[in-house]
Amino acid sequence: MKAIIIEKSDAKPTYHGATLVDIPKPGPLEDGQALLEINAVSFNHRELWIRKGQYPGIVFGSVLGADGVGRVAEIKGGSSGFKVGDRVVIMPSVGWNKNPRGPEEAYYILGGGHAGGVFTEYYVSQQEDIFKVPDHLTDAEAAALPLAGLTAYRAVFTKGQVTQGQNVLITGIGGGVALMALAFCVAAGANVYVTSSDDNKIAKAIRLGAKGGVNYKDEKWGANLQKLAGGTPFDAVIDGAGGDGVKTFSKVLGLGGIIVSYGMTVQPKVEYTMAAVLRNIEIRGSTMGSRLEFEQMLEFVSKHKLKPVVSQVWQGLESVEEGFNTMKNGSQFGKLVLSLKTPSKL
Question: What is the mean pLDDT of residues 194-209?
């Protein structure tokens, strides 16, 4: 079968290969496993960081990719109720069952490391790690959902405690996690505002339900944000950037406001001052989520008929480099997907 593996490169600057290879199709299943024929997969920035050598625990020769949707091709034992032909999404990590604080055991995200990935034609999963796809989603939309949806759900609800009527700021709109966070907050009845360096992305976010947005390249973006919100303090910030933005967050948040940090793509540190402490402002780290939160996220998506934003779809694993090149230039609004099926079957 075809698969995309991470292949070590000595090039400078570091950019390891994402190589299309032939590998053996999985052998006989063990009890409790399911063999999936993969229909579509999607990219995450994590794969790009792996190729740049900026991610821990890289295992060269392992299959890339955390996000995938497929159909059950074979199943053995278990009492999950799945049957051959069922369309399923895959839990994008292993080792975290339901503890709301963090993983109960060794925890691995799928792809490029100790847990094999889904950028392949067939994938073997434990039955407890697959879930039926919400019926309203296409294969491309379902492939775009797992990692971004799980990360956003935990950030918004478990850590951010977002509820109806609250003011919420989501930074860096356009990425998969930020867009899912926007969808979740809007569905929950929150008043959502966004930041971006691209005014077109802000306009698109407003069409998706945001109340407004500001360009963070403007030195007065914090004051502009307060004006947009009518001077009403914010209850939560869902942030994937880090860096100096936290200083501004502390100014726009009300007493007891929550900053949820699910990444620090701009700068891997923040300045948390005594002024924030005195106002009971909290910073809460959040990465991915548990199997229980994944199940809850899928139920929320089904209930509200939410759809991940898909920016572009390519045909076949052989188009992997086109996807990476698009991700590197940062122009996408939504997720990037590879379809392993013909368009008529999407």
Answer: 96
